[in-house]
Structure formats: C-alpha cells, structure tokens
Automatic annotation (TrEMBL), chain A:
Residue span(s) of domain F-box: 10-51
Keyword terms, alphabetized: Auxin signaling pathway, Nucleus, Ubl conjugation pathway
Any single GO CC term annotated in Swiss-Prot or TrEMBL for this entry: SCF ubiquitin ligase complex
Pfam families per record: F-box_5 (PF18511), LRR_6 (PF13516), Transp_inhibit (PF18791)
Organism: Rhynchospora pubera
Species classification: Eukaryota, Viridiplantae, Streptophyta, Embryophyta, Tracheophyta
Gene3D superfamilies: 1.20.1280.50, Ribonuclease Inhibitor
Protein name: Auxin signaling f-box 2-like protein
The UniProt record lists the keyword Manganese: no
GO molecular function: auxin binding
Automatic annotation (TrEMBL), chain B:
Bias (Basic and acidic residues) ranges: 79-94
Polar residues bias (residue ranges): 16-26
Record's keyword terms, sorted: Auxin signaling pathway, Nucleus, Repressor, Transcription, Transcription regulation
The name this protein goes by in its record: Auxin-responsive protein
GO BP annotations, alphabetical order: auxin-activated signaling pathway; regulation of DNA-templated transcription
Region Disordered: start-end pairs: 1-103
Localization per Swiss-Prot or TrEMBL: Nucleus
Domain of life: Eukaryota
Subunit structure: Homodimers and heterodimers.
GO cellular component: nucleus
UniProt-listed Pfam families: AUX_IAA
Protein family (similarity comment): Belongs to the Aux/IAA family.
Keyword Signal: no
Length: 598, 247
C-alpha cells in the first residue's frame, strides 16, 4: 500500500519513462490494469499493439484507446483457414480496422496483417490517411490486387517495407512496379515473391537502382536470371535474396554475370526462391553458402539428390532450413553433418497424394536430431514415424519450442510395433520443458493427451487431428495446460462433455476451433449461455434444412436470419465447425449467413 | 419447374463444338435456376474405412472421396470449400488400399493453399510441359461472380470434366441469389426480365462467352467467371471472331 501511494507522487512523465522499458506487450497489458492512472499513462504512450484475433475487440475501441499507435499487428481468420476449413467470405476484414485507425491514430507507421481480407480501397485509404506510413506486411491475406499495390507504391512517400508473403493477389498487370516515385526510394525490404504474374523487368531494374537502402529483396518467378544478375550488381549490400527463376544455360552471359554478381554480395545471409533451379545455377550459389544463415528450398523440387547434398554441405552456419521431402533421409543426413548450428527445420511434402515412394522417414529426423542439438523449431511431414525415433529425438534435442509433426496418413500407427504414437509424443512433452507449440498426428489415444496435460506446462498452441478416443482426451488438455492460448481440433471424437468440461478455461484462451468432432448444437448453446464473454460461432451448411425452408418460401438464403435454423428444435444435430473466442466486442456484425453466433 | 435458360448460340466457325452443334449440346452451358439440389444425387454420408470402430458422430470425418488421379479433386479439398460442390460430389466410394488411389480428406495434409497451388504448377514453366503439368495440377481456382450476388465464390476448374458439370455446379452455387431467394424462378422473374449468361475472362483479359471452345482449352485459359445478365452480354465476341481479328 505504501509503495503504491508513493508511486502516485511521481510525475506522469516519470512513470511513462519507466513504462518505456517495457517492450513486451503482455507486460504493458498487465501494467495497464493496475489502476486508472497507469491505464491512462500506458495507453497514451503505447506505440505497438498486437491483436491476435481481430474480433476480440472492436476496431474503433482499440483505436480510441491508443491514439499514439505506431505499429499494429492483426490476425484474422482462424489458423485452419490456411487449410481451407473456413469457407470463403467468412470475415477477417481489414477495412474497419484501417478506417478506425484513420480516424484516431494518425501516427500509424506499420501495419502487419495475417489471414485477413484487404481490399484495394483499404490500401488506398491506408496510404492516404497516414503520412508517416512505412511498413506493410501481409501474410496469407487476400482480397486485393496489384492495383492496390500500385496505390501503396505511388502514395506512400516513406515506404520502407513492402512484404507480401503467400497472399492471394489478383494480378492486374505489371504496371504497379512503375508506380514507385521517380526519385530515390527509402525501400529497405521488398518481397513480391507470391505474385504470380509477369513483372516489368526494366521497371524492376530501375527501381532497384534508385533504392540504395535495399537489404531484402524477394522476387517472383517471372524474373529471369539476366535480370537477377543485373539487380545484384546494383545491390552488393543485399542481405536477404529471393531469386526468381533460376534457369540458365551454361555458357550464357546471364549465367556468367550471375556468378560474378553473387560473389560480390558479401553480406548475403538468407536465400529463397530457387524456382526451376537448374543444377548449374546452384553451382553459382556455392561461394556464398558458407555465410548463409537462412535457406528456403521448399519451392524447388528440382533441387534434390546429389545437387542438394552438394549445396547443403557448404552451409555450415545455417540456422534455418526449409526443404522438400524429396531431399530424402540421405539429404537430411548431410544436413545433420554439415549444419551444426541449425535451429529451425521445415520439411514439406513434395508429393501430396502419397502415391510416390516414401522420401523422408523417421531416420531422417533422428539423424537431424543427432547432428543438430540446437534444433528448437520443427515442421516435419513424413509418411511414417516410430515411437522410438521420437523418444530419441526428444533426448537429443530438449530445446524444442515448436514441434509439429505431420504423418501424412491419418491415424497411422508406429509401423515397427503397430502401436499408437502416444509414447513418442509423450516423450517430447516430457523432455521439452519450453514447448510452446505442438502439432501431433498418427494413431493417438487419450493417453497422449494425458501426457500433454501433465507435462506441457508452457504449451500455448496445440493442433490435433484424427486423435483421441473419448472426451477425456480433450479434458486432460483443458485441465492441464495452464498457458494454453489456442486449441484447434479436427476429426476427433470429442463431444459436448469435453466441450463443457471447463467452460471458464476458454476465457483464458484466445480461441478454440473444433471441426468434424462429436459436438452438438445443444452443447454449443450451453457453452454460449454459460459464457457470455465468448463468441460461440458455428459454421454450418445444413443444406437439407435450408432446402426445406426454401420450399416453404420461408427462408431467404442471403439474409442473416439464423434463428429459424438455430431454434427449430433439433438441438441434437452435430455441429460441423465451431469457433469459440473471447471478446469484448460482442457478436460479430459482419458474420456471413453461414456463420451463426449463438 | 422453370424452363431452362438458353445460352446464346454463338457458334463461330472455329468453335470445336460446331461438329456437334445441335441444341441439346448447348444445354451443357445452360444456367438453370431450379430448386437447389433438384438435379443432384442424394446426399450420402461417407465413412473412411480406416477408422477404428469407435469413431463417433454423424459425420465422423470430413467428406472423403476416392482420388482417381492426381488431377481429380472434386471436393475442392485443396481449396476453399464449396457448398454446391459438396452436395453434388459426395459419393459413397470404397476406399481402396491401393496407394495410387488413396482417399483424400478435406484440408489434409495441413498445407497452405498457396503452397499447394504453387507446387501444382512448379514442375515446369515450359509452355509445352505446362499443359502436362496441369494434368497433374491439384487445382485451378477461378473466382465466380454473379451480377447481383452479394459475394464471390471460387471454383476449381480441375474438378469438372466438361461444361455441363461446371454449369450444374454453378447453378447450385448461385441458385439462392436470384430475386430475393425465391426458388421458383423462371426467366421472366429475374431482374429486368433478362436471362443470365455465363462468361469468362481469358488469359488475355478478354471477356468471352463460355462454351465455344473445347473444355480443355477453356479450362486452361479461363481466369475468372462471371454470370452476367443477358442484356449485358450482347456484343461479346465469340472465340472464332477473336482469332480472326488476331490474324
């Protein structure tokens, strides 16, 4: 008490100064709850805000609270939207946020969005409303076109960063690159690798010429080797490069100039792209491999076998590697022997239909874990896995913070013993005390959830598919994982019992997703009734029902007339998709007709 | 039942369909606006035989289908879910153990659609191989808009084999959007009393009527679809005309 009253005698400026040392946003969130005075000081001095679920708060409320905002990060659709489990037009609109910021936060400089729908109009508004706007990062977004990019290029005078990662961008032609101002730009980072269309190569070269600060440049597939070489000659200070198409003839001028250009880039630390890479062009890359810390070959199925081995054995300082499984266990063994500093590995499947021969197995993973003890982040797609391999891996690498294993065939047991993989995944949670993100697959019973609930105390995000036997599985997780923020479940036999086992838990979490499980409308309604601070949304396409009502001329498909469907008496119907999240914003006002908020 | 809408009969000299040019074939491109599901097979439940018997739930697992080959992906499992397609394409099929024909599950394996779409056309940029590569491509998404509808849909052209499949699917998808949702819609009930025609934007950015060229050629060059009011569609060049102008 005495200490607290002493704080009141400090002038606001002092408290504000103290707060300025708090950069971690959860800490700032916490101090703002201490008292009204601190709330006010904190909110007026806050520069960065992270909104993990754009529907957790109304945009205008967030904007009004933090008028000094400079950097905003927003996430929209649930994670499983990446895998097409969320219908189009679900929501996640950026427009209301940009409009709210435009009204209340004129100092906005950076906007990062993930899984949101952004229109060209919103992009126009963005660059006109914020005179200091500097950085736009869009990840897995959609709804805009190259016209929107042109608006950003044209009107944003101090643009430093334009980073487009894996977005669905409508291509309206290559003119957008011409829209950058004629004088020198302040561009530091430009990533348009996800654009599918043609690029005006001359414009690109000219742009690079007048962007002396460029450190990160990721081109798209339409950029040929000739242009790449020219560009690299212009930017010897490049640190992060995403190549375009790496097809070139041995004796071509393009190839020769690429070699000499690459050798000049002494600061290059990260490489990606490698579209259509020919073995020859890979040769050109060898001289810079020794300094690489990041390498992304996951879009380069042509880089495999001996070509891959020849390349990777030079990459002794590699921290981050993304590859396709076509490199095989053999390739991974070479990674294990060469890349001793490796921290992050992602192995993506090259053949999605599992028709080809198995290319990476548990052997590759064990080899990696043996050779790379610093590994802390893993995403591994494989055809099979054994318990003993997982146990070995966790012994070798106790530092995992992110562990995601996807066995391509759902519910596949350990092929050596025909048992579930409970023990293997259990070993991971027992050993890796810092595990924050976990995705499991293969044949799994409730036992693995028992382990997770018991040991995974630091776990924040858990993704489950085709696993478990009874409600108890999910209950173990809800009861045990104290730090759980996001839980996403698909195709598991968890029902209303599990859903309602600990309803207050969901208030401590960002969100819960359940699809193709065993929950009913009754259970979801019960949840909604007990927890008014949550939005309980179901996504359903009960077509048969709608047809019936249409026959009677009763329902309109377009209108948001949910009550008729929700309250027609049959609460035992199974709910196909459930998305529950805590919010202070109340039910969504922009929910489409297939999303029903209970 | 409302009489079927008739597609405008622009059968140019180069239209490959001209050899079969007879009115019944035009039905392939007709847009019908009957009751939703009026022509679709009954909705059946699918079960994955690999499931242990303890699997519960009416729809214990997402719709599954047998994959006839790399390009067959009728449920759009590699892309956005589609109400109409689900209704149309659910079938009860045995899930074989043969690796070449493994059942596919919606949204599995968990790979971002961007990556799936990109990898599908990665094998070769070479134009000659591109067609071949597209045979093995997992999906080819185009947006479909309908004049007056509140939002767009997306369809995977790879999931259809011919114009008829496509138009049936589109009918179901958009049947609810005409004149306030009433299911019994005839040509005269539509806005302004005009009929609807199906058009597409091709690789060159030109808007063409659907139906003039062989299906494969259409699927390859189509970038987006638009269900236009018939009154707006007058003046669209048939493909034959366009190639004449080119030459």
């Amino acid at each position: 008490m005495k200490v607290q009253s002493a704080m009141f005698y400090f002038p606001e400026e002092v408290i504000e100064h103290i707060f300025s040392f708090l950069t971690h946003h959860p800490d700032r969130n916490t101090v703002s709850t201490v008292c009204k005075a601190w709330y006010k000081i904190e909110r007026l001095s806050r520069c960065e805000v992270f909104v993990g679920n754009c529907y957790a708060i109304r945009p205008d409320r967030a904007a009004a609270r933090f008028p000094g905002l400079r950097s905003l990060t927003l996430k929209g659709k649930p994670h499983f939207a990446d895998f097409d489990l969320v219908p189009p037009d679900w929501g996640g609109l950026a427009g209301p946020w940009i409009e709210a910021m435009a009204r209340s936060c004129p100092n906005l400089e950076e906007l990062r969005m993930k899984r949101m729908v952004v229109s060209d109009e919103s992009l126009e508004l963005l660059v006109h409303a914020f005179p200091n706007f500097k950085a736009l990062v869009l990840v897995s977004c959609e709804g805009f076109s190259t016209d929107g990019l042109a608006a950003v290029a044209r009107s944003c005078k101090s643009l430093r960063e334009l980073d487009l990662q894996e977005n669905e961008i409508e291509d309206r032609g290559p003119r957008w690159l011409n829209s950058f101002p004629d004088m020198c730009t302040s561009l530091v980072s430009l990533n348009f690798a996800c654009l599918k269309g043609e690029v005006n190569l001359k414009s690109l070269e000219r742009l690079v010429c007048r962007s002396p600060n460029l450190k990160c440049l990721r081109l798209n597939r339409a950029v040929p080797v000739e242009t790449l070489a020219k560009i690299m000659n212009q930017c010897p200070n490049l640190e992060d490069l995403g190549t375009g198409s790496l097809l070139a003839d041995q004796f071509s001028e393009a190839y020769v100039s690429l070699i000499s250009a690459l050798q000049k880039c002494k600061k290059l630390r990260s490489l990606s792209g490698f579209w259509d890479a020919s073995p020859l062009c890979l040769l050109a890359v060898y001289p810079i491999c020794a300094n690489l810390t990041g390498l992304n070959l996951s879009y380069a199925p042509t880089v495999q076998g001996q070509d891959f081995i020849n390349l990777i054995q030079h990459c002794v300082k590699l921290l981050r590697l993304w590859v396709l499984d076509s490199v095989g266990d053999k390739g991974l063994a070479v990674v294990a022997s060469a890349c001793k500093e490796l921290q992050e590995l992602r192995v993506f499947p090259s053949d999605l239909f599992a028709a080809g021969p198995a290319t990476v197995t548990e052997e590759g993973l064990v080899a990696i874990s043996t050779g790379c003890p610093k590994l802390n982040s893993l995403l591994y797609f494989c055809h099979s896995m054994t318990n003993s391999a997982l146990i070995t891996v966790s012994k070798n690498c106790p530092n995992f913070t992110r562990f995601r294993l996807c066995i391509l065939e759902p519910r596949k047991p350990d092929p050596a013993t025909n048992e579930p993989l409970d023990e293997g995944f259990g070993a991971v949670v027992k050993t890796c005390k810092n595990l924050r993100r976990f995705s499991i697959s293969g044949l799994l019973t409730d036992q693995v959830f028992y382990y997770i609930g018991k040991y995974a105390k630091a776990l924040e995000m858990l993704s489950i598919a085709f696993a478990g036997d009874t409600d108890q599985g999910m209950t173990y997780v809800l009861n045990g994982c104290k730090n759980l923020r996001k839980l996403e479940i698909r195709d598991c036999p968890f029902g209303d019992g599990a859903l309602l086992a600990d309803v207050t838990k969901y208030e401590t979490m960002r969100s819960l997703w359940m699809s193709s499980c065993d929950i009913s409308l009754r259970g979801c309604k019960a949840l909604a009734t007990k927890m008014p601070s949550l939005n309980v949304e179901i996504i359903n396409e009960w077509e048969a029902e709608m047809e019936e009502n249409l026959n009677n001329g009763v329902a309109e498909v377009i209108s948001n007339n949910n009550n008729k469907h929700i309250n027609n008496g049959n609460d035992e119907r199974k709910v196909e998709k459930l998305y529950v999240y805590r919010t202070v914003g109340g039910p969504r006002t922009d929910a489409p007709d297939f999303v029903w908020t209970l | 039942m409302s009489p079927p809408l008739v597609e405008h009969n622009y059968m140019g000299p180069s239209g490959a369909l001209s050899t079969e040019a007879s009115s019944p074939d035009l039905r392939q491109t007709e847009l019908r606006l009957g009751l939703p599901g009026s022509e679709s097979p009954e909705r059946k439940q699918l079960t994955l035989e690999l499931l242990p018997p303890s699997a519960k739930g009416k729809r214990g697992f997402s719709e599954l289908k047998k994959d006839g080959g790399p390009s067959g992906d009728n449920l759009g499992s590699q892309g956005k879910e589609d109400k109409a397609n689900k209704g149309k394409l659910e079938e009860k099929k045995p899930t074989g153990a043969a690796p070449a024909a493994k059942a596919q599950v919606v949204g599995w394996p968990p790979i971002r659609s961007y990556r799936k779409n990109t990898m599908a056309i990665t094998p070769s940029k070479n134009k000659e191989d591109a067609a071949e590569a597209k045979q093995g491509a997992s999906c080819l998404y185009v947006k479909v808009s309908m004049d007056g509808a509140p939002y767009l849909r997306k369809v995977d052209l790879q999931t259809y084999k011919n114009y008829r499949d496509l138009s049936t699917a589109l009918e179901k998808m958009f049947s609810g959007f005409t004149s306030g949702g009433s299911a019994h819609v005839g040509p005269t009930d539509l806005i302004n009393g005009s009929k609807f025609v199906l058009t597409y934007e091709d690789k060159d950015g030109d808007w063409m009527l659907v139906g003039d060229v062989p299906w494969e050629m259409f699927a390859e060059s189509c970038r987006r679809l638009r269900i236009m009011k018939g009154s707006d569609a007058i003046g669209l060049a048939p493909r034959g005309e366009k190639s004449k102008i080119r030459n």
